[in-house]
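Problem 12. The chain below contains 295 residues. Write out its predicted structure in token notation.
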Amino acid sequence: MRFIRQDITSYTSDNITQEYATWAIGTTYAVGNIVMWGSYFWKNSFTANIGKKPSEESPYWVKWGTSNYYSLIDTQSSTQTVVSTDLIVKFPISYIDTLAIGYYTAQQLIIDNLDASNNVVYTQSFNQSSNEEVFDYFDYMYAPYSTSTDKAKYFDIPRIGTQIRVSFIKSIFTEVRCGFLVGGSAINMGKTKEGVKIGWHSYSERTTDKFGIMSITKRAAQDLVDFETTIPSSNLMPLRRKAKVYRDEVVAFIVDDNENSIYENIVTLGVMQDMTPIATNNDLTVLSWSILESV
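Solution.
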């Protein structure tokens, strides 16, 4: 079990560009003008808007959506980056040792470590197989058949070279899609103790009138991922501190990286809701985790 905070803030690509100009403090905007600010599009709703920074609280701007460029690396976006050709992106290796790629459609992934002259110094790849009858356990996870979509995969990255190049090869698909590309330094959450429990919680309202007739007002349903891990007891306090620092951030989770497990390669985005030690001794501690999925 590992989780990875996003360290990729920008990248280069030949076929994804920023669709609108970045908001500028000295520019006067007319009603309907669209700008980029942060990861999002903002649409102006005020005549002769100047100097008013886009934000959720601003009466002058309406959040219009996530750009095709930033959807790839914005962990809070639920949209996908979409292109009609192969997608190739490059970014500094920095402190990245793990890549989590999720909710994607492509026939092949190629991960290259590049030196300062763009020469490949290390490469790894993953090809989708074509086992049509293999059951897909969960949405957004790795599914080993080529005609499915919404897969997820992670790669361990050796710290050699200066850049990482990720290639999404379209092949049989009409377009390439990717929901998230998270790169960073992975934090070990311990070894999976038992299976992973996947569920959801409904926030719909249910009322019953005096005649016993029930009405339901539908609201959001929150996806939940619960599991238990074991760690050396000496690692409990350092892990607690790290988990607490990132508890309100959307991070990528590699829920089980045991190659012999049926849960291998469950990669998802989520927020830590709870981490509780439930049993401990001088050697090992059992931790209970509860993750709210955000994809």
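Discussion. Residues 28-67 form one domain. Students who got a different answer should revisit the alignment rule from Section 12.3.
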